[in-house]
Amino acid sequence: MAENEQSHGGLRTADTDDVVELRTGDLDSTEGRAEWARTIGQLYGEMDVTWDKPTERYDAEWGGRAFGRLHVSAIRSDVQTVVRSPAMIRDSGEDGYLLLMVTDGAVEVTQCDRTAELGRGAFAMVNLNRPFVFHSLVPFHQVAVRIPTSLMESRLPARLAGHAVARTYEPLGAPAVLGRLLADLAGSDESMSQSTRASFGSATVDMLAAALSETTSIGPALTQRERDLARIAQIISDGLHDPYLSLPDVAAAAGMSLRNMQKLVSATGHTPTGLLHQARVERAKNLLLTTDLSVADVAAAVGYLDVSHFSRTFRRLTGHSPGRFRAANS
Fold first, then answer.
1. Which residues form the HTH araC/xylS-type domain (predicted)?
2. How many Å apart are CA 37 and CA 247, to the nearest integer?
């Protein structure tokens, strides 16, 4: 066993690669259930796990690893119920979205007064910042993907992401293509390099956002304000490589005055300058994890002429230097 790996009965984790391997069959009934609940808490935050027959042998298996900023797991389990309550959310620092795709069996996911019923190939999302209940009707297999909030909502407007939770996405069209990719990622072996896994992780979020945008109806049409904000975000995203991109340029491309753009963005609790730096740092995170570019080259690719300015901004928004961020996530 490598020095950076820790053994917990049937559980193996590797700190540098977020590897999880757990087989409850290697443990007695009580210990297996405890390790299963601990693994859920380790990856997704505090949750309560219960079983219909808590005294009988618990047969389950978990294998997962990081794909850049995503964590992808293949899970097989006997019948169970998992609850994340408001108190658990307050006490837990975890945040993000969890995509759950059933590959065998049947489960129900309830959140925001909606229940998604999932059979083979179907998937649903939950927001880890909101209470939810996961209940399996029979023994099941599934793929679970943890996605940071900032990564998900950098591709998908928050309102659409929120509307997508606890809805059933059947394996048809775009969701079917995405489902095949998720199954392949969950079943991939250790031969795939970390940078390649990170690239696949980033592409997976792009595909998920596209699939949800295509298949999710959000009821009332976007307001003019929401359309204007989306247009501003798109202009910023398209121009991140340009170090001379200015706020007047963004406003003009969006068809509004600089003052109106500032008022529009300020109403969301942000500033246009803040949006620009945040978008550049999000793009830089992806480049740091999916390429071998130097920090200086990453800075230039996201529109910073001064690598020191880039590093200061990156540290202010993430709490880490670009180099430490890459080392900690690769």
1. 230-328
2. 49
Residue carrying structure tokens 């753009």: 261
Is the Cα torsion angle 134, 137, 140, 142 positive or negative in sign?
A: negative
Q: Would you tell me which CATH number, out of the four given (1.20.272.10, 3.40.50.300, 1.10.10.10, 1.10.10.60), belongs to the domain 224-328?
A: 1.10.10.60
Q: Residue 20: CA atoms inside 13 Å, Cβ hemisphere, count?
A: 26
Tell me how crowded residue 184 is: count the other CB atoms within 10 A of its CB. Answer: 11
The closest of 313, 326, 240 to 279, measured between CA atoms, is: 240
pTM above 0.90, yes or no: no
Gap between the Cα atoms of 77 and 328, Å rounded: 31
Q: Which residues pair with 60 in a beta bridge?
A: 77
The predicted-structure confidence for 9-58, as pLDDT tens digits, reads as follows 344 333 334 789 999 988 888 899 999 999 999 999 999 999 988 778 89
Please name the residue that has the structure tokens 């309560």: 48
Extract the tokens encoding 78.
Answer: 């006997």
Confirm if 235 and 252 have CB atoms less than 8 A apart.
no
| CA distance linking residue 270 with residue 273, whole number of Å | 8
